[in-house]
Amino acid sequence: MNYDELSVIAKNMRRNILTMIHAANSGHPGGSLSAVEILTYLYFKEMNIKDVDDDDRDRFVLSKGHGAPVLYAALMEKGFVSKDLMNTLRQVNSKLQGHPDMKKLKGVEASTGSLGQGLSIANGMALAFKLDKRKNRVFVLLGDGEIQEGMIWEAAMLANHYKLDNLTAIVDHNGLQIDGRNEDVMSVEPIDKKFEGFGWHVIHVDGHDFSSLEKAFEERKTIKEKPVLIIAKTTKGRGCSFMEDKAGWHGKAPNYDEYCTAMEELGGDN
């Protein structure tokens, strides 16, 4: 799949995200929109995942579980989840819960939401595949604010100890969290030096550029006996001019006028 085709999918995913969150009048648009290209590349270019029931599929864990709409949008574009569910986000008994629930929706590999836990879950998957001598790979998406959690660093230490070279973590580094800029809440820098100190190989990318993402994942394939961290520089609220780089859009749904403006900017019907 070429970059133009990936761009079309990314635009569709942004429309899906905004439609879901507007219909629910609740959700997290900022960090969902910032991760669109990352998930587009993973699901449509990088991961081996043709069927959610295939034991040989690669696994994806959304550690920043509040970004569930971007995962649902990817699963919809992949054809694993019906778009008929789009208006059911966050409703009681819906398959599209506010945080991913693996018991409700096929294609969700781990129930997440409590920040900091996803990397440990991904470690367990990757270690199990190693012990079973299987070729499955595991990818996990972290928020940059999320790595303030101590559990992340325990997991980072374990991944290196067991030489989990089938594990790739990606940090959605948009610089913002619910209370403001990371450096004002609790600085997470230098992310690269910290993970390198725990024995990881680190790669920097533009998280909205498919060429940059492709180079990063190709480099990742050359790294043996080490887990890899990809630090993806992104913009919170990417694709909606009035949301971009604004912490206030971490967990706020667009009203009707805002939704219409966003959909017009993305070239979609509202």
Automatic annotation (TrEMBL):
One term of GO molecular function: metal ion binding
Pfam families: Transketolase_N
SUPFAM superfamilies linked to this entry: Thiamin diphosphate-binding fold (THDP-binding)
Residue span, Transketolase N-terminal domain: 10-267
Obligatory cofactor(s): thiamine diphosphate
Keyword 4Fe-4S: no
Keywords: Metal-binding, Thiamine pyrophosphate, Transferase
Family: Belongs to the transketolase family.
Protein name: Transketolase
Organism: Sedimentibacter hydroxybenzoicus DSM 7310
